[in-house]
Amino acid sequence: MTIWERVNTALTALSLPLAANVYIPASGQELPDSYLVYFMISDPAELHADNIEKLRSYRVQVSYYSRNGLLTMPDIVGAMTGAGFTRLPGRELPYNPDTRHFGIALDFNYLEDLEEE
Predict the structure, then answer these.
(1) Which residue of 7, 30, 89, 112 is most buried, as measured by CB atoms within 10 A?
(2) What was the pLDDT predicted at 26?
């Protein structure tokens, strides 16, 4: 399973519009009031043995955007940690006056054991 499939599977349970990299609404439609976007930040190898990669770490960012603010966010952390990700630092994103969305970016790490494949 790819890292994008893992993240998508974890976040689908939140029942929000969801996209990898950028959310592009259908032609002529506005962005939803609330939605999620995710992307991979980095994927360094963590362990090699006998010239074979054994472990790889994936750092991903999940961004939540909402016109209603961030007071009542979905349980992104619970969805991701429930799928085997570890929470890393997050940060609030600047308010977007053009789309009227508030945003927060949450980072997560996933350690893949390549010997289990």
Answers:
(1) 7
(2) 85
Report the alpha-carbon distance of residue 74 to residue 13 in Å, rounded: 10
- What are the strands, taking DSSP E only, across 1-117? 18-20, 34-42, 45-49, 52-66, 86-96, 101-113
Q: Are 108 and 80 in contact (CB under 8 A)?
A: yes
Phi, psi of 99 (to 5 degrees): -100, -10
Residue-range domain boundaries for the chain: 3-116
- Does the pLDDT of residue 101 top 90, yes or no? yes
Confidence of residue 62 (pLDDT cuts 50, 70, 90): very high
pTM (two decimals): 0.92
Amino acid identity at 31: L
14-31 confidence digits (pLDDT tens): 999 999 999 998 888 999
Which tokens belong to 38? Answer: 């995710």
Reading phi first (left if > 0) and then psi (alpha if -120 to 50, else beta), residue 51 is in: left
CATH class name, domain 3-116: alpha beta
